[in-house]
Amino acid sequence: MKLIPYEVGGGVCGWHSDDAARLYWYKSEHPGSDRAPNAPERLTACVIGHTGIVMGEHVIVEVAALDFLGAGLFGEGRPCSFNSAVKWTGDSYRHGIYSVNEHVDRHVIIRQDGGGIYVYLDAGHTDWSALCSSLPSERLWDLCQLVGHTYHQGRDHERQRLYRLFAEGRIKRAKIRGQSAYRVVETENEQQFQSA
What we know:
Blueprint: E1 3-8, E2 11-17, E3 24-27, E4 35-36, E5 42-48, H1 52-55, E6 58-62, E7 66-73, E8 78-79, E9 87-88, E10 94-100, E11 103-113, E12 116-122, H2 128-134, H3 137-167, E13 171-176, E14 179-184, H4 188-195
């Protein structure tokens, strides 16, 4: 992926991807998730799928190593549940799907919305190349929204579970091989649920 400078009034105000996803990074002297004084060369990606267990929570992905596969764009307005005459549009959400060169089974999904840029690395068994070549852009949008939403829901659910366990006094500190560690004290109900 290459980032092309976006100029307004003779000055660069940001960069957009050189593909159909047309993802946009803002230029700012105050860095944030999608703001930087220079075009980003690396992106921090959340690891999704079962590979996240062994790879860690985040990895760094080189922008130059990304090869465009497809764009998840919302398309025409869709009926909303509030009123069938009202159309819901999702143009503020854009997705770019990329392969990571030299890694056949690694794909990056980049989501841009009003809150910034979100990057996900799928190092699992999903054949994004086949999906991008067979699905229309609107279905790719649906799929990317689902993947991102599922990832965040899972993280939020686990965080809330740990908060609850901490409040109940069921997370205990212990030394394991000389290192501080924490373990969850299971109750009888949880043990029965897990064995069922």
